[in-house]
Write a structure and sequence with these properties.
about 325 residues; 2 strands; about 80% helix; single chain; RsiW-degrading membrane proteinase PrsW (M82 family); mainly alpha; transmembrane
Length: about 325
């Protein structure tokens, strides 16, 4: 018995040591210190707000919750070794343009061109993805070498800027409910947005950038081909499915668990109160929907990353041949 206890204690010690090592590694990077410090600040502000009921810290919860992961990514991108032409200035411009100009232009276009219809989610997705692609196109004109990797990083930066401002908007909307101020709604919204941000706007715009930038080599405008068109339609489709996941989960829950009295209330124009089983099923269906869309985007990103690895291997094969060519003024 004592051996089992000692073994368990040793396992706990190893787990603690691993956690401490991981925290130390994070603190050794600037982006890691931002992530750790921001998470600690957000947790303290949330705990104090929930404990005291004081709403003065709500701006901290909303702003830190919305910007923590996006700013962490930009900090990593600005300090990476293979930075190339993507200077901190270009990356910060991309983040700000994606957050401010992207959300404003998309909201303006949606207000003027979209009306409630079954295709509303598709229209929103196309306009928002087009706004982010236009920002990518503008930023890419300042680059000479436009590689697939540059497109991934710059696209993710623009997407994170868009997602950060959108998350703050969702957080502000969650503050006020029909029953008054809701701190719980704010916290749940910020947690959800913080988890899904890397697999939503940042992921879709990274995919778009990886295809858009390479076809702009030596050009001020992209060469529109089948891959570029299909990529735009593909990320717009993922965006559409992501936005429609909530409604799809509602319909799925009603189809599986609908009761006669709920059907009669729906027919009379009333929204019946869901049962506990329906709430649990809806939550699970929504989670599965987000996970499937996110997994599809990550798989697509993995395909692009493997293409990048193949390009690197080809470059490594070409470099030795180039090195055999005599270099010097007499061979110029």
């Amino acid at each position: 018995m004592s051996d089992v206890t000692a073994e368990a204690a040793g396992a706990d010690d190893r787990s603690d040591a691993t956690t401490l090592d991981y925290v130390r590694r994070l603190r050794s990077h600037g982006w890691g210190r931002i992530l750790l410090g921001g998470t600690t600040l957000w947790g303290l502000a949330t705990a104090l707000t929930l404990a005291t009921g004081n709403a003065n810290l709500l701006p901290v919860i909303i702003l830190v919750g919305g910007f923590l992961f996006p700013v962490t990514f930009v900090a990593w991108a600005c300090r990476r070794e293979d930075q190339g032409e993507l200077t901190p200035e270009i990356l910060i411009r991309g983040f700000l343009l994606g957050g401010i100009l992207g959300t404003v232009s998309a909201a303006t276009l949606e207000a003027y061109f979209l009306t409630p219809s079954p295709l509303l989610y598709a229209g929103v997705a196309i306009l928002e993805e087009a706004a982010k692609a236009a920002i990518l196109l503008h930023l890419a004109r300042a680059l000479v070498q436009r590689t697939l990797w540059d497109g991934l990083v710059l696209g993710a930066t623009v997407g994170f800027g868009f997602a950060a401002c959108q998350s703050v908007g969702y957080g502000l909307n969650a503050v006020f409910t029909v029953t008054g101020l809701s701190l719980r709604e704010v916290v749940e919204t910020e947690l959800l947005r913080g988890v899904i941000e890397p697999t939503s706007h940042a992921l879709w715009t990274a995919i778009m950038g990886a295809v858009l930038l390479p076809v702009m080599r030596g050009r001020t405008s992209p060469r529109v081909g089948p891959e570029l068109v299909l990529t735009f339609l593909g990320v717009s489709a993922l965006h559409t499915l992501w936005d429609a996941t909530h409604n799809i989960a509602v319909v799925f829950t009603l189809l599986v668990t609908d009761t006669p009295w709920q059907g009669r209330l729906f027919g009379l124009g009333y929204l019946p109160r869901p049962t506990d089983a329906q709430v649990h099923l809806f939550t699970a269906a929504q989670f599965v929907g987000y996970a499937l869309v996110g997994a599809t985007g990550l798989f697509w990103l993995g395909v692009l990353r493997r293409r990048l690895d193949r390009l690197h291997r080809l470059a490594a094969l070409v470099e030795p041949a180039d090195s055999l060519i005599p270099q010097g003024p007499e061979y110029a």
